[in-house]
UniProtKB/TrEMBL annotation:
<protein>
    <submittedName>
        <fullName>MIP/aquaporin family protein</fullName>
    </submittedName>
</protein>
<feature type="transmembrane region" description="Helical">
    <location>
        <begin position="134"/>
        <end position="151"/>
    </location>
</feature>
<keyword id="KW-1133">Transmembrane helix</keyword>
<feature type="transmembrane region" description="Helical">
    <location>
        <begin position="36"/>
        <end position="55"/>
    </location>
</feature>
<dbReference type="Pfam" id="PF00230">
    <property type="entry name" value="MIP"/>
</dbReference>
<dbReference type="InterPro" id="IPR023271">
    <property type="entry name" value="Aquaporin-like"/>
</dbReference>
<dbReference type="InterPro" id="IPR050363">
    <property type="entry name" value="MIP/Aquaporin"/>
</dbReference>
<keyword id="KW-0472">Membrane</keyword>
<keyword id="KW-0813">Transport</keyword>
<keyword id="KW-0812">Transmembrane</keyword>
<feature type="transmembrane region" description="Helical">
    <location>
        <begin position="163"/>
        <end position="184"/>
    </location>
</feature>
<feature type="transmembrane region" description="Helical">
    <location>
        <begin position="84"/>
        <end position="104"/>
    </location>
</feature>
<dbReference type="InterPro" id="IPR022357">
    <property type="entry name" value="MIP_CS"/>
</dbReference>
<feature type="transmembrane region" description="Helical">
    <location>
        <begin position="6"/>
        <end position="27"/>
    </location>
</feature>
<feature type="transmembrane region" description="Helical">
    <location>
        <begin position="220"/>
        <end position="241"/>
    </location>
</feature>
<comment type="similarity">
    <text>Belongs to the MIP/aquaporin (TC 1.A.8) family.</text>
</comment>
<dbReference type="InterPro" id="IPR000425">
    <property type="entry name" value="MIP"/>
</dbReference>
Length: 242
């Protein structure tokens, strides 16, 4: 397990479980059909938890280009490793979304709503407005990264000894993503992760999905650049306040 492989596997698991919960809710004839936004946001939060548990010990579990770039801006990650991590995240996202399609293929075939099928792969705005959509993605990712920068380790007060929480250490980021989804996700579906949106969108365009919609490439730049801008602003503010 190298950092590169960890980012591939971690991101693949993130998209498998995250896209999987969307498929379970929006596709026809699933057991979880129409179970709602709470189920989707909870599923994505737990997907982040599982992905961080797997990748965290080996790569730090960035599983998100916005995280990788923001950490580099903050001086906490070498710029020379940024392209490799982003490549791994994109590969993982494409693997994960393809696996969701294979898992739910019968339900994709049973679903007539082309936009519902596309929603399993990528985000779309509730109201299409370029500035508002970009701002939504930027502010959601800003909250994600700014909070991550202020995560602290548990420690024994008298000796200042840091106490490792093992796999439980991944819980804070899961709660963070859950909060963002519940509070800020209603505008654009809160991609807050360029690889999470772009990788699956590419696979939506490539895979032989029955009666699929267009992949909406005119919107695709927003869930890529919005998170990168939001994460960078969070890193800059953190540096100014430190």
């Amino acid at each position: 397990m190298t950092p590169f492989i960890a980012e591939i596997i971690g991101t693949a698991i993130l998209i498998l479980l995250g896209g999987g919960v969307v498929a379970n809710v929006v596709l026809n004839k699933t057991i979880g059909n129409n179970s709602g936004w709470i189920v989707i946001t909870t599923g994505w939060a737990l997907a982040v938890y599982v992905a961080v548990v797997i990748a965290g010990p080996h790569s730090g579990a960035h599983i998100n280009p916005a995280v990788t770039v923001a950490l580099a801006v903050a001086g906490k990650f070498p710029w020379t490793d940024v392209p490799l991590f982003i490549l791994a995240q994109m590969i993982g996202a494409m693997i994960g979304s393809s696996t969701v399609w294979l898992t739910y293929k019968s339900h994709f075939d049973a679903t007539e709503d082309a936009d519902a099928k596309k929603a399993v792969f990528c985000t779309a705005p509730a109201i299409r407005n370029t500035f508002s959509n970009f701002f939504s993605e930027a502010i959601g990712t800003f909250v994600l990264l700014f909070t991550i920068f202020y995560f602290t380790d548990a420690n024994i007060t008298e000796t200042k000894t840091i106490v490792g929480l093992g796999s439980l250490g991944a819980l804070p980021v899961a709660f963070l993503v859950w909060s963002i989804g519940l509070s800020l996700g209603g505008t654009t579906g809160y991609a807050i992760n360029p690889a999470r949106d772009l990788g699956p969108r590419i696979m939506h365009a490539i895979l032989p999905i029955k009666n699929k919609a267009k992949s909406d490439w005119s919107y695709a730049w927003i869930p890529v650049l919005g998170p990168l801008v939001g994460g960078t602003l969070a890193a800059v503010l953190m540096l100014l306040l430190s």
